[in-house]
Design goal:
The structure holds three protein chains of three kinds.
Chain A lengths: L6 E12 L2 E12 L3 E5 L6 H8 L7 E6 L2 E3 L4 H7 L1 E4 L11 H8 L6 H14 L15 H13 L5 E5 L7 H16 L3 E6 L2 H7 L2 E6 L2 E6 L6 H9 L16 E10 L9 E9 L3 E5 L6 H9 L6 E7 L2 E2 L5 H6 L2 E4 L14 H9 L5 E2 L2 E2 L1 H14 L16 H14 L4 E5 L7 H16 L3 E5 L3 H7 L2 E6 L2 E2 L3 E2 L5 H9 L8
Parallel strand pairs in A: 3-8, 3-9, 6-7, 7-8, 13-20, 13-21, 16-19, 19-20
Antiparallel strand pairs in A: 1-2, 1-4, 4-5, 9-10, 11-12, 11-14, 14-15, 17-18, 21-22, 21-23
Helix pairs in contact in A: 3-5, 11-12, 12-13, 13-14
Chain B lengths: L8 E2 L5 H25 L4 H9 L6 H26 L7 H23 L3 H27 L3 H21 L34 H18 L1 H11 L1 H7 L3 H28 L10 H11 L4 H25 L5 H21 E2 L11
Antiparallel strand pairs in B: 1-2
Chain C lengths: L2 H30 L7 H19 L2 H25 L4 H19 L25 H5 L4 H19 L1 H11 L1 H6 L4 H27 L11 H11 L4 H17 L12 H20 L2 H7 L13
Helix pairs in contact in C: 1-6, 1-9, 1-10, 1-11, 2-3, 2-4, 2-9, 2-10, 3-4, 3-9, 6-7, 10-11, 10-12, 11-12
Classes of the chains: A alpha/beta, B mainly alpha, C mainly alpha.
Amino acid sequence: MTADRPERLRLTSICKRYGELKANDQIDLAVGAGEIHAVLGENGAGKSTLMKIIYGVTQPDSGTLFWEGQPVEIQSPAIARQLGIGMVFQHFALFQTLTVAQNIALALEADIDDTELARRITEVSQRYGLPVDPQRLVHTMSVGERQRVEIVRCLLQSPKLLIMDEPTSVLTPMAVQTLFVTLRRLASEGVSILYISHKLDEIRSLCDSATVLRGGRVVTHTLPRNESNDSLARLMVGSAPAPCVLELQDTGAKQLEVNDYCLASPEAFGVDLQDINLTVRSGEIVGIAGVSGNGQKELAAALSGETVGPHRGWLRIAGQTADHQGPTRRRALGMAFVPEERLGRGAVPNLSLADNALLTGSAMGLATKGVRRPRRMAAYAREIIQRFKVRCGGEQSIAQSLSGGNLQKFIVGREIGLQPKLLLVSQPTWGVDVSAAQLIRNALIELRNSGAAILVISEELDELFMICDRIAVITKGRLSPAYPRAQLSTESIGLLMSGSEGEQHA
Amino acid sequence: MLKWPLRLEKRAVPSGSLRLTAPLLAVLAMVITGFVVFSLLGQAPLQALKLFFITPLTTVYGLGELLLKATPLVLCALGLALGFRANVWNIGAEGQLTLGALCSGGVALFWAPALGNLALPLALVAGTAGGMAWAAIPAWLRTRFNTSEILVSLMLVYIAQLWLVMMLHGSWRDPDGFNFPQSRAFADGLLLPLLWEGQRANWAVWFTLVLALMSWLFSSQLFAGYRMLVSGEAPAAAAYAGFSERWTIWLALLISGGCAGLAGACEVLGPIGRLQTTISPGYGFAAIIVAFVGRLHPVGIVLAGLLMSLLYLGGENVQLELQLPSAMTGLFQGTLLFYLLAADLFINFRLPLASTPKVRP
Amino acid sequence: MSSDLFIAIFTSTIVAATPLVYAALGELVVERAGVLNLGVEGMMLIGALAAFAVNASTGHTGLAYMAAALAAALLALLFAILTLSLQANQVATGLALTLFGLGLSAFLGRNLAGMPAVTLQPLALPWLRDLPLIGPLLFRFDAAVYGSLLLYWAISHFLRNTRAGLRLRAVGESATVAHSLGQPVMRIRYAATLFGGLTSGLAGAYLSTALTPMWVEGMSSGRGWIALALVVFATWRPARVLLGAYLFGGMTVLQLHSQALGLHVPSEALSMLPYIATIVVLVLICRNPKTILLNQPASLGRNFHPDA
């Protein structure tokens, strides 16, 4: 904290445990008035837990919070808001079936009548350049617009401290700049901002000061302006991992062809896929970038065969028409699939790893003539655990006892172990620590080098630049052509993302 | 914000040992409740509990009755458990049982002479098929029209019962039965052979044991059992793996319907010996409790079925000896299920009373 | 059809539908808060028994309705403790509640079967009741019928126009989000569940004091389940619950008037009608999965734990 500002929030020795895991361990942190303070750390470093404690969503096991010099116990978000703390959630806290005004009303303490509320919403949104229509239903809005609703909701309560949890993961690069203008303006008016991110460029350009977390502990407090991306990364991770190496190689046959494919979403407020065209060949990794909520889930489900509804266009896997085939048939054609949710989709939480090996492994001889083969299941699980360095208590461990990163390694390992000709991976390293992420990425590259076709859907641009030969962008259910990586930059991808969504960075 | 007097902490992994002890705890709690209820009714509680839980088992006839009543309960519960494990909620076993009785009764009444020795097996098959057909309705409506199998299977209970009554008031009524709504008694050769003389339990017990074994094989050894398990534990994982939801629903409902139908057939071809307006004192519903108390596992179900059967016998016994209402049975059944659901809590949660000391400076 | 017959059919339809209106409107509120209580049938039976017992012993119908509401709400409390605080599976617990209510009411009501009781009398509405046609058609019901309409109005108003109603709907859509905004999820769900118990009790009371003023084991004969189906049929909207309930009421009275209407069908076949209609109606509504997806409270049946 810089000395010339009065102190707004101070945390001393905050601890929070979840079972065996120490999510926060003796955390100290101080934020001054009008300060933009970054909290950075890799996935699982304890950032989100800390913010939930400050916002009163969870309670610390021990430690003290001081608000403007006074010790406080923040037992609920309502109390946090009374103090003047507002939070913009990473996964929005919005009700889809309600209007903007209703969503905002639910977060306000006092009952304000509807016309007064609408007036205040319009006022705040104009003042900070965050246009929202109070009467619109949230489910009709884009992700960027929803974030604006979240911010306006916080601002209506004239907060003294605003917590932003990974706000840019839902924004196009241009919209990020607009957001920063708003945040700087708020800071200049004396609002403190806690800015949680793992994106180093953003932190260096926006934040006055930073607290770096690793494994639930504070590594250091620092001034990001005086740091480089490399030095910040080292603070976050401990040691910088070896970068991925992607050597150019010739591609082979078309393993996946999608032609003018249109598919309505089966979800209540899902995104419909429109005129998707895509080809993935043996020996290449194609990436699909996009701001979250633009049809990634729907595309993944359409390709995996989980959604086979009435559609237009066609889809071929390994040269065979697969439009109407479910996941089992598509697997038989040589496809494997890593879904974005691990617990409950990629793995059954209450079953052992050996049992989970059978989930997609029946064709590998883990079940023959309709009978399970427990020994083979265990052997296959053991093989994955060894090869992918899955940390667990052996193949009989229950899936939900594994950490996110280790379970992801297991699932990726299981699918790669099927020796697919075509692998579809959704969000390969979401919530995974850096070393596991690197192991997963290298495994994908190795699979590509051995001649498989790989499609990666990810919201992490950096990751796609690391491992992809070609990259396409998905926006509102439409997919751009895939361009070779060398022809693309963050800016050009940003343009593709916002191409049909100009209003998002208004 | 509610401040919880007890804070529950989710276990990282569900406790396996508690999964087995929870039903025992529930039974214990039920017995204690029984103690209290009997005291409140002005009875010597230990004496009444003895009459309820012990006396029925002291005679050979009583043991036969235990098996006799446990049979339809276990049969229905085996099928239901298969569905419950897969998240398919067939709660209309009572209706499927009624239809099973109706179909097997029809065969026994009208085709027995023509079929000769085959009449009994074919009547059993007809009963099973009838139960299946009745369960196929919710299966079809769920897979084709997305309609809740809970509500449909339940509505079909009432329809089946009314249908049976309609037949017995109409053309199936015993012409020499003084206008009583029941059919002619079946011929002797059409009844299931007794296990031994001097009691009423019959061959249905063997069918039940064989089905229990098959059910165990199915769920622990076969890939199909694994698929159903995954469908129940994590539907999204089942979709991801490509396990068809339709297949799961159809299989679960057909098997549970078939089991309930067989149970109905065994009732009319066994102790009842004819068609009458009431085939079961709610076996199909009590089987839901049996399935849960038995942890949806075949061995557990057999044990829970025997317990539940004992509750029926005990209820009858205290009615006879102490003039207490036989409805005690329903009361005990209901409380048992409640206690089990409450005890289940500790499988997934624990009370961190001393384990995490709270330090607040 | 003569006007007398028309009046008879119309009024008996309204009367037959009234328990459904109470039970389904209550369950609608419960479900809009994201809780699925399949124990309506059990709560109705307990309510019916409590009302009958109090009515038979005191002759005071107001007291009887209060007892019914209270008794059923106690059962709902049991459900709430198990599913909300103790995180038990809602489907299984609801089934348990029904089985328990069935057993408990049979047990407690063992001596009441066959006893005579006072029937709920029509409300004395002087002048109005004597209006030609309108009078016998609309102004000769008992207080509970008018009460059910009042309840309909109150619930519609509550859900549509009040902040508390908005909170309830929000909790039903996502308990997690509501919790992170500081809404008292548990308190709201407890309140909704208890309210549902209360109205189920009133529904039961109407059965045993007005529709068939006596006590018979299992006398609700599936009406609790039909009420559950009505909520789905109504796509969670109060006005359609009302419509649906009267439709079903009409079907149950068809039997009473079948001879006057010149229908010659076995009475059992007519008794089947409401159950068959329930199935048909469910099929019609659920046929399009999006209808359900868009209207069903998104967190329906899902447990929520503030710490998890």
